[in-house]
Amino acid sequence: MALITESRLRAQLAKGIPNPFRVNPEDKLTPAAADFLKSRGIPLERVSSAQSFSTSDDLKADLRIPVGVSNRHVHLSEEHVELLFGSGYRLNPLRELSQSGQFAARETVTLAGPKGVIPQVRVLGPSRGASQVEISRTDGYLLGIQPPVRLSGHLENTPGIALIGPKQMVMLPEGLIVAKNHVHMSMEDANRFQVVQGDRLMVATAGDRPLLFTDVVVRIHERFSLELHLDTDEANAAELKTGQYVRYVGRNGEITHAIRR
């Protein structure tokens, strides 16, 4: 199951949105996405599971996983929201994200490291129990910090970072990571791909610079929508953008489906 949002459709504008726009039976189209297509005169075409939904002959519909490219961003605890933006402050949603209940907030902060700063880093909501900052390896060189590759929430023995907001600066003692690539799946998706929580997928990209990602961690939750999360370094290396697709070719070190070029 894929959640099709307005932001995902906008990301496809440069390459061109298919007309008509084909939607699998298990996919969910948000009202904003439906209005976006309607405003551009693009009709929806509901297809059966037996029909091909691929925009490339090399990618079969039942093996495709949509890509979400994740730029640097910050997750904040409620305490740090108030310290950075003011007492009683609450994050203001700017746009919905592909995962249910999550949003990009209007608020941004500046990251400050030993060698440099990165301004206007987007805060994602809602607030969490612990603050966390996710950057790319390239960002780390600019900041002068090289954090470990970790799954979200795995913050033990990670470096800290200074966050500068409109009210004051907060120095995180830990919480700076390069996000480990992973794929979100609903329980229905997990059954279809025959995987369990923590499995390691192998996925292949198409295009002029095909790559094979061999250690993509499976994360399963009933509210998740099918999506592979890569950071900007990984996506640039594979020439991938949000809204494009990769093909599932195996799991846990074993190739189970043919890799096609």
UniProtKB/TrEMBL annotation:
Its cofactor is Zn(2+). GO terms for molecular function: acyltransferase activity. It catalyses: propanoyl-CoA + phosphate = propanoyl phosphate + CoA. Keywords: Acyltransferase, Metal-binding, Transferase, Zinc. It holds the Pfam family PTAC. The keyword Kinase does not apply. The keyword Transferase applies. Its EC number is 2.3.1.222. It comes from the Bacteria. Belongs to the PduL family. PANTHER family: PHOSPHATE PROPANOYLTRANSFERASE (PTHR39453). This is Phosphate propanoyltransferase. It comes from Paenibacillus vulneris. The gene is pduL.
